[in-house]
Amino acid sequence: MKLLFCCAGTKPEPWIAGLRAALPAADVAVWEPGAPAADYAVVWAPPQAFLDEQPGLRAVFNIGAGVDALLKLRLPPTARVVRLDDAGMSVQMAEYVCHAVIRHFREFDGYEADVRQGRWSYRKPRSRADFAVGVMGLGVLGSRVAQALRVFEFPVNGWSRSPKALDGVRSFSGREGFNDFLAASRVLVNLLPLTPDTQDILNRDTLSRLQPGGYVINVARGAHLVDEDLLALLDEGHLAGATLDVFRTEPLPAGHPFWTHPGMTVTPHTSARTLRDESIAQIAGKIRALEQGEPIAGIVDPVRGY
Ligand code: NAP
Ligand code: GLV
Questions:
Q1: How far is the CA of 197 from the centre of ligand 1 (A)?
Q2: Residue 274 CA: which ligand 2 atom is closest?
Q3: Domains, the chain, with CATH or none
Q4: Which of 138, 266, 272, 293 has fewest C-beta within 10 Å?
Q5: How far is the CA of 139 from the centre of ligand 1 (A)?
Q6: Is 195 exposed, middle or buried (0-12, 13-18, 19+ CB in 10 A)?
Q7: How confident is the model over 285-304, as pLDDT tens digits?
Q8: Does the pTM exceed 0.90?
Q9: Distance from the alpha carbon of residue 270 to the mean position of ligand 2, in angstroms
Q10: Closest to 8 measured CA to CA, from 62, 82, 57, 55
Q11: Which residues are catalytic?
Q12: Residue having the nearest C-alpha atom to atom 1 of ligand 1
C-alpha cells in the first residue's frame, strides 16, 4: 500500500517518520511530480497537479477539520475525503473559547489596563444569566465548546442543521430556528464549516439580532464574517467587542482595521492547532480500518460540504 504526503507549509520529515512508524507495511513518501500511483494521500492545501496526477487515490486525509479549501479542488472521482475528527483539537477549542468568553464577561482587559496604571479598582459583578452564549455548529468542536461553557454555568444555546440533545444546552436548528437562536444569545461563537450555506453568515442582519452588548467569537473561517458589518456594529455600540482567530485573508493584511480596533482581540489562526502525533495515530487507524473494509468516521459529504 502506498501513501503520499503533500502538505503545504508543513515540515514533512517528522510526519513521514511518524506515518512510517504507525504503518510499517506502507510505502510512505513525500509527493513529487511524477510520483507513482498511490492508494492514500495525507494533504493540506495540495496543488491541483497532485490530485490530477493521482486519479486512483482511495482516500485523501486532510490534516485539518475544515475541508472548505480542499473541496474547491477537482478531486479524484473515487477518493473519499476524510477530515480530522477532533485529534486533540476540541480541548484546545474549548480552552480558547472559554478563555475569550470569561475574559470578556469578567472584564479582565479593563482590570489589566487599570493595574498597568497602578489603579486598584473594582467593577460591578455582572450576571451570568445576562451572558447567554450561542454556539453556531454543534459538531465535534462546537459540542465540546458548548459543554465546556456549561461548566462555568453560562446559559448556552446551540444551533445546528439537525436538532441536538446536549445536556444543559438549548438546541435550535435549521434556518427556521436561526433568528430565535440569535435573539436568545449575547455572545456568539462561530464553529460552522464554511460552505455555500454558511459563507457571510455573520453579517449586519444576523449580528444585529444578538442581544445588546453582543460579543462575537469567530474561530471557524474568515469568510463566515462580513468584516465591514462587524466594524459598523462595533462603532454603533450594538456590539461590545470581538475575538477573531480567522480572517478572509491570512495572514491578516497590515493596515486592516481589525489589528487596531478597540474591543477587538486578534489571534493568528491558532485556536485549535493540528497535533502531529494525534493526527498520525488517527489517520493510521483509519487506513488500517479501510484496508480491513471497516467503516470510518470523518468522511466528508461533498454535497453538504462538510
Ligand atoms: P463538524 O463536526 O462537521 O460540525 C459542523 C457543525 O455545523 C454540525 O453541527 C452541523 O450541523 C453544523 N452545520 C453545518 N452547516 C450548517 C448550516 N447550514 N446550518 C446550521 N448548522 C450547520 O465540524 P467541526 O470539526 O466541529 O469543525 C467546525 C469548523 O471549525 C471546521 O469546519 C473549521 O472551519 C473550523 N476549525 C477552525 C480551527 C481553528 O484553528 N480556527 C480549527 C479546527 C476547525 P449537523 O450536526 O446538523 O450536521
Ligand atoms: C483549522 O483551521 C482546521 O480546519 O483544522
A1: 12
A2: 5
A3: 2-87+274-291 (3.40.50.720), 89-266 (3.40.50.720)
A4: 293
A5: 6
A6: middle
A7: 999 999 999 999 999 999 99
A8: yes
A9: 9
A10: 62
A11: 221, 269
A12: 139
